[in-house]
Amino acid sequence: MLNMLTNRRHLRLATAAALVLSAGWLALTPAAFAAEKLRVGKAVPEAFSFVPLDVGMRKGFFQKHGVEIESIAFAGDAKMQQAMASDGIDLALGSGPGMAFVMKGSPVKAIVAMAGPPLLLTLIVRPDGPKTIAEMKGKRVSVSTVGSLTAWLVSETSNQQGWGHDGIVVTPMGATPPQIAALVRKDIDGMVTDVATALTLEKEGKARILVRFGQLVKDFHIHVIFGTDKAIASRPEDLSNFVKGWLESIAFMRANKAETVKIAADVMHKDEEIAARTYDELMPMFSDDGKFSAKAMAVLTKSFVDLKILNEEPDPKKLYTEQFLPK
What pTM does this model have? Predict the structure, then answer.
């Protein structure tokens, strides 16, 4: 009996010692618990295109892969590119045309082709404005910034009408609210905005959708995810883990419309009816693997010359890397 009690005492002591050693070992490996922080920029705060970041954060997909996200919103690609150049952010959710900044010396590369045709964007006018695109020649249309995706889409629309790239007057105005105010005041004739905002303004009787750009441009990468050269060189594992979390977020969104719509409505500050309609229109544009298309890259590199950002089309392979995509 005494031996049994002694053996049990020894077993309890051994177990306690093992727990202490285990706790000590875990304390020496904080990476097992503390996720690595990545500062991630959004070109604009309210677009559905960037909702996957919020979905991944709220559902814990990035945390699951060992990264913590600090989300920072900007007023257009140009300001976000400046933040990357100054080491203000590590990753950026931006536009395909933003890849032209690489050839201008911006210390970044695209690492994920996150979305294809520009289903997100529309050209809206006032309810009493032009009834067809043929009436837009010489009209003023606001966009986010010079050299942006919104600017190129207006330019390309003009070109397809046979007016050249300057047939519609592009007017950079930054964020969405000032553009809406200018449209209402009749300072401009139209504006490029995301489909959710367009649907909301139509519902309120303030605007009408004139052009859906996804019908004009088929081969395209409307959005890509950029990584800074510094992050690419020094944090490859974190970037790979971010991409895993991003693609998991896309898969969740496809399989869970109702929950995605609730998150999107909150992020975009829209009602759930508008968020649901936006979901239906835009989910097809997201990529499930993040790979870059040769046809889309050909259109993009041509757009850099069209916008007079570059004098000649660059080698597309200098603009992106697929090293962080799942093999």
Answer: 0.79
